[in-house]
Design goal:
Layout: H1 2-9, H2 17-56, H3 64-87, H4 92-108, H5 117-120, H6 122-132, H7 139-195, H8 204-228, H9 237-257, H10 268-297, H11 314-317, H12 325-352, H13 363-366, H14 389-410, H15 417-427, H16 432-459, H17 464-478, H18 484-502, H19 510-527, H20 539-557, H21 568-591, H22 602-628, H23 635-653, H24 663-666, H25 684-714
Length: 715
Amino acid sequence: MTQALRDIRRWPWHLPAHVLNGIGVALGVLLVQLLAGAAGGTPAALLAAGGAIFASLADTPNPPHRTGPRVALGAAVGLMASILVTLLRAHPLALGVLLVAMSFCASMLLAWGVRAGPISFVPILAVVFTMAAPPPADWQTQAVHAAWTALGGALYLAWALLVARWLQPRYRALALAGVLHATAELFRSRARMLALEPREAQGALPLQDWMQRQVALDERLQGARDMLFVAADAPHGARQIALLLHAIDLRDILLGSELDLDLLGGDAAAERLRIALAGRIDGTAAMLDRVALAVQLDVPLARVPGGATVPDALDASIEGFAADPRRRALAGALRDRARHLSDDLARMLATLQHHAAPAVLRPAELQFFVSPQGWPLAALRPHLRLGSPILRHALRSAVALGTAYFLALALPWTSHPHWLVLSVAVVLRGNLDQTLSRRDARVAGTVLGCMLVLLFASLQQYWLSGIVFLLAVGIAHAFVNVRYLVTATAATVMALLQAHMAHPAGGFNIGERLADTLLGALLAWGFCYVLPAWERRGLVRLVDRVRTAARALVHETLHWPEPGQADVPLRLARREFYEAIGGIAASAQRSRAEPARVQIALPAMATLLTRCHVLLAQLAAVRTLLERRRDRLEPEAARALLLQAATAVDRLLEPGSAVASDAVASDTLGPAPMVWIEEPERLLPWLERRLGLVADSAAGVAAAASAVRAASVRG
């Protein structure tokens, strides 16, 4: 009984961050409704709830110093939009012009990146909420409405700051656990590729899964950096940061762990070693999952359930090469690299158990990895040209929403023209892939939401409207970036109930809602082809970013490490290269939904991605050799080799370099032959060979980049 009560008290520890955030939003809107309702009655409660919802769109899991400005901006934008719409309610033509202007400005906010996404939708939601209520009779009533809306936004801002401070420990733990889970999935994906036959491992499905895991990990990593790196002085902050840095380093160790595996051949001994290495990687993934669960539940690792570990067969597999000293030496090197995974995992476990090593980065250095916070006007400058996808989307959205509004006025039903506008706004995205996904989810969610509202109406319990409305607000907010079908369903319930509570005599208008959604989805789909920003348009920029990032990473990696020297530039360069690769992978994924005549060359993109990861793996192996076996290298000779290799690679990756793009087709940039070292304790020949492989890999990246550029120009 005591254990059961303890489990009940700890159930919130199992909730993901987006669900906790949604619960906080729903409770905040409820609090605003109760306070405004007690002071001004039901009309005041509805107006204040609208102001709170405008502000809540920008309330996502963030540190308080980010939550405050964003929520305040959302509240201000919503208030201004609602005032302008109220002033022009009696002038349909002027209101349509205002809607076009607001849509354009809201879409241009996306120039500031992902953080501006929720705020860019606030003006559209303000139009919907303002037009759902009866128009004010005079300017005094308009002023009162604006005051209640402003009060609702201000109250919610105070609530959001309070909840953000209260939930910070949970948000940080969940962000770290998410990175650890994503890292475990990446390891598991790599183990599956190794467990396949060599020819099968080159298939599209395993490679595609590996790339998707990389992109998913990069997304979670930046969110975790933003949460953790600003809280180094918080309780457990240093330990959480150390765990995050360990997870980042583990990915590099993974990349280098299987290099040269193909040189062992394809006989039974090589097969056993490959399977053993896959088992080591899979076992590391299982332990990472246990660490993630311990972090999420805030319990010791010993209390996290986990199966028995599989005996490690890696050492035993080396015996299969006893008859061939050369292959045995290479197999031993592979085993040693695999041990680095175990060593780093052991350090992570020691950190988890409060035996943390000294901090790798100081608090001031951690800030270099945090995403920007402000709203500089300079961010708009690159997008003030017609070739910018942001500007094209803004123009497209303005025309689409204007068309939807004026078309709604001409339709047989005109009581809710803002519904058609809303349907277009939520479906029309910046690219065709996301628009098609939103289109299907929006239509299905609207049907489900209407069915739920019909079920609710059949109960004839009006007092439930407020409760269901609040639940819909929280659910719609929580799942918008996780599962949009759930958000679309909850948003339909929220919109129908909000209109019904503001004007009960108007009914629920289920048929009109369904018709507007279907027509809006079709309009959004059609307008995707107006000023389209096909992925091919940005391909040259993405490829140049990859080459520039690769040059920077090579420059920071190929130098002799000095004891005590901070590795901030190396970590920054590594992050930039991973993000550049992620941009290529995401672009290739989005292009698959585009018309065949404008699709980018997916085989060339896949080759570029593969060779970028080969370069990453080679650089990781070099860095591991320099950091962990520096005492077995002659410093002066090693410095000379590093300088020579860095100079050669820099020339290869320089834009416009002489590496021919047809090298991709010829595939001559294969692995260097296996070397035999008479004195295994001397590592300089290994370093020389590895640097040669780095140069080969860089040439492969340069050739693949040139091929992608050529394919985009030909298209």
